[in-house]
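Narrative of activities, Objective 1.

The group set out to show that a structural description can be obtained from nothing but a protein's sequence at a throughput compatible with the screening campaign. Below is one input-output pair from the validation batch, recorded exactly as produced.
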Amino acid sequence: MLFLQFLTTGVVTGCFLILATIGFSLTRRVEGFLNIAHAELLGVGAFTTWWLNADKDWHIVPAGVAAIMFTALVGLFVARLIYDPIRERGPAVLLITSTGVAFVIGGVIDAMIGTGIRTLEIGLATSYEPFGIRITNYQLIVVAFAAVVSVSLALFLNRTRTGLAIRAMSVNPDLAASRGIDVRTTSRATWLLSSGLAGLAGVMLAVLATLTTDLPFAQILQILAVAILAGLGSLYTVILSGLIIGIAMDVSVYWIPAGYRPLVAFSLVILVLLFRPEGLAGTRAA
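Output recorded for this entry:
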């Protein structure tokens, strides 16, 4: 029964990682670099939610929606101000720059929020124990959001003009431009979407965890693990990778101390890459 409890918790962790990684992977595919600052966008979403909810007495729903919208705008602003002017310098320069951006955003959050722990004013979680396995209403919300976002994003990317343009750019930006796709507008839509998803993950982080200013950046290792395991694959590969990493980390607690969870995540990534260097997707970068 204890093993099943860890398995259930792992599914919840995996669903959170799906929300945290989808936007990161989308940026990676379309913009062509690893945006390390994506983790700090989770912090923007989390602490904006906390400020509106706990300090300004907003209900969690409008606070969360406002935080997602604000995070999307912050992500777009950073992209326009910092990444766009140096795009031609290549993915390595963008990667290093994004690390600097992460520290800047983290520093701003530190300066504005300060030290200590923060919690939302949403009341204690309600626990359910079906078949003796404990799960809370907040954990169920994370699972539900992961499912809804995954389905909605799949429909958006496959059924809308903007979604199809994003998919085309992720395959070959030059070819997409030659076919009449507005690359600049599509890039902006990608940043809004990916940053908004980071904001949603930040809201879920605030709901699930006690917030500290160093917590958002700590998520980058797990986000990287999921993205690397998925490779340059589809949305569905990211979903599968998120669940695999989440379950592996939490089930491992059945045998080893919880402090080794990140080690388990990257050990699993290394093991998979030994046999599938392109990740679960089996797709090489162009």
